[in-house]
Amino acid sequence: MVDREPPYPRKPPLSTPQKLARMAGIGLVVLIAAGAFAYVNGSLDPQRLTPARVVDVFEHNNGVHPGYRRNHPKGICVAGYFESNGAAATLSRAQVFAAGRTPVIGRLALPTGNPYSPDSAAPLRSFAVQFTQPDGEQWRTGMNSMPLFPVGTPQAFVDLQKATAPDPKTGKPDPSKPPAFFAAHPEAQPFLAWVKTAKPSASFVTETYNSINAFVLVDSNGKRQAVRWSLVPEATASEPAPDAKDYLQKDLTEKLESGPQRWKLVLTVANAQDPTNDASKAWTGKHKTVDAGTLVVDKDSPQLNGDCRDINYDPLILPSGIEGSDDPLLAARSAAYAASYMRRTSEVDQLKAEPAQEKQP
To answer: Which of 7, 244, 336, 352 has its CA 20 to 30 A from that of 268?
Structure first.
């Protein structure tokens, strides 16, 4: 365990024109990166948002692409294992943290709403992972390369979707609505500051992926400790993103041909004053961190017939020893992911083969 700043990715600054272009697309970036959220158990109240209505919003804003996830639809399946060093076993009784190896099935993706988006469409990457313990219990987690979320509640997220919804006549958001939303939600300013300097990476394997939401670890004596976690890459960025539509999958396959790719699983232990119920607030200052082990990816496969295709990376599928925090976005994500999963799995038979990337829906 060491004291250091939370392991967030550092990005080189963009030029002024690039910053302006990025800010012009902020509505799209927020929409596609955040994930789907909804109030659960709201189907009997017409004034409350249901999971289905949230998925409807994504389909309205992004179009319907049968058989694909409604968010983060462009991705690639990966597989490997997590090699625990046992350092986190004092914080959690979950078997995944005991010294040893746990198989994983993951998915690296581009957080847009369109499976045909160019890889440079958003300055974000996502990594979802399923750990399967020897006792059969699973830990599923969905992480993003941004360090924090723009807003802290499901209602604020819904309001953001309304503010960034495209006008049917222009295909773009009403230019007056996003500024009005952000003016009314100052909690989004740290996220906007990050977006100003973010840029698309050249590779999945050089990104740091963050849980963003807080979770609670429970040890063998019932002691509880809030944490956030990050996958910190061993690989380092060496070049800017290429000027091409599709490069991330090719880059990953080439790197795996050279050898397995690795990330350290770093747990950031909450201090007493750290909020656990608001993903829009960063944990600042010195924190105790725990290097829990190494996640190793040694193979990939196409998402439409790979092992990750039928996995719903619900962040509340957790083994004994890991629990959700009081963050309201967690239950919201879980509910909306389920709604999206039901729709896309009922459409899989419409996808006879992986379509060419050049093909437009």
So the answer is: 336
CA distance 273 to 37: 26
152 close to 278: Cβ distance less than 8 angstroms: yes
Categorize the per-residue pLDDT at 49 as very low, low, confident or very high, splitting at 50, 70 and 90: low
Residue in the structure block whose two tokens are 């990594």:
127
The whole-angstrom distance between residue 291's C-alpha and the CA centroid of its chain comes to 21
How many Å apart are CA 2 and CA 35, to the nearest integer?
32
Separation CA 307–CA 294 (nearest Å): 21
How far from the centroid of its chain's Cα atoms is residue 27's Cα? 17
Tokens 């440079």 correspond to 120
Q: How far apart are CA 129 and CA 138, in angstroms?
A: 10
Amino acid at the residue 106: G
User: Which domains does the chain show, CATH number per domain?
Assistant: 2-350 (2.40.180.10)
pTM (predicted TM-score): 0.81
Per-residue pLDDT, 112: 79
